[in-house]
Specification:
Two copies of one chain form a homodimer.
Chain A: H1 43-56, H2 59-70, E1 76-77, H3 78-85, H4 89-101, E2 105-110, E3 113-118, H5 122-130
Antiparallel strand pairs in A: 1-3, 2-3
Chain B binds a DNA duplex through helix 4.
Chain lengths: 140, 140
DNA sequence: CCAGAGCATTGACAGGCGTCTATCTCGTCG
DNA sequence: CGACGAGATAGACGCCTGTCAATGCTCTGG
C-alpha cells in the first residue's frame, strides 16, 4: 500500500545546518545536508532519499509533476490531469497522493475540486542532493 | 530482469541543442533538453527519465553511487563495495550493472579486478533536469 | 599447464507497486 | 431536501525487480 503515509521526506534524523532558502519540507527532503557525492550515504539516508526518488521514478508521476510545474499559476485539478495521461481517475489520484506524501506537491481542496501545487523548493532541494559539486567554489 | 540492456539513458529521440559541458551519454540522460518543470513531458520522455531515476531510486544503488563518487580517484572495485553494503557479491554486481546501463557510472576492468568510475556529467545532467529554474535568479 | 581468485551470469523466490473496478464521502445545485 | 458530480478510498490482480545460491568465465600465479 501507499499507506506509508508521510514517511518519505519528512522525518529527517538530524536537520542540522539546513534551512537557507528551501522552505518547509522541501529542505527536509532527506536531501539538503546529503550531497550524495561527497560522503558515502548511510543506510538510513539512502533509504530516505530512495523513497523520494521512487516517488518520481514513475513515468506517470513524472508527467503529472511536469504538468503541474508547467502550469503558470501552478494549480491543476485532477480532472485536468486525467485525460492527457490516459489513466483512470483513481490511478491519477493515487499518484498525486504519493507525490504529496513525498513532499513534492501540495493539495489544496477548493470546493469540489482539488488543486495540486508544486512545493517551492522541493525539486530544487532534490536536484541539489544529486548534484556532485553543489555550489561551493572550493570543490574543484 | 535487468536485461533491458542499454535502454536507459541513451536512445534520445531528438538531441537537439544539447552538448555544452555534459560529455557523452551523460548529457543524453534523456535529461539535458527536458527541464521537466517547463513543459509537460511526453510519454516517451517521461519513460526515459523514469528509467534513469529508477536506477538510483534504490537504497543499495544510492549507497553504491555515493561510495563511488566519494572516492578520490573515483575508482572502486566490487570487493571494496560488497562488505560495507552487507549484500552478496552477485547482488552488488547486478546493481553496478544497472548503474552502468543507466549511464551513471562506467566499468573499467583491469586484470581480475573491475573498477567502477562515475561518469563525469551524468549526475549533474540529471540534477539539471530536475531543477525547476536552471539559473534564472527570479525564483524567490 | 594447472590451481586459484575476482566478477559476471543464470535461475528462482518473495515482496513491492502500478493499474483497474467498485464503492464511499462530501460539496454543489436545482 | 434530493440528485449529481468530483475526488478519495478499498480491494484485487499482475508485472516488475531486489535478493540470494549456484555456476561459469577470465585473468593471474606457480
Amino acid at each position: 500500500m501507499a499507506t506509508t503515509s508521510a514517511s518519505a521526506g519528512l522525518p529527517i534524523p538530524a536537520p542540522s545546518e539546513c534551512a537557507d532558502d528551501t522552505p518547509g519540507l522541501a529542505g527536509a527532503i532527506s536531501a539538503c545536508c546529503t550531497p550524495l557525492a561527497r560522503t558515502p550515504l548511510s543506510a538510513d539516508e539512502a533509504e530516505q532519499l530512495a523513497a523520494v526518488l521512487k516517488a518520481i521514478a514513475v513515468p506517470a508521476r513524472l508527467r503529472l509533476l511536469s504538468m503541474i510545474y508547467a502550469r503558470d499559476g501552478g494549480e491543476a485539478c485532477v480532472c485536468e490531469l486525467t485525460e492527457p495521461l490516459g489513466l483512470t481517475q483513481p490511478t491519477v489520484s493515487h499518484h498525486l497522493k504519493v507525490l504529496v506524501e513525498a513532499g513534492l506537491i501540495s493539495r489544496d481542496k477548493r470546493g469540489v475540486w482539488a488543486y495540486y501545487r508544486p512545493v517551492p523548493g522541493a525539486m530544487a532541494a532534490l536536484a541539489a542532493t544529486l548534484t556532485p559539486a553543489p555550489a561551493t567554489a572550493d570543490a574543484a
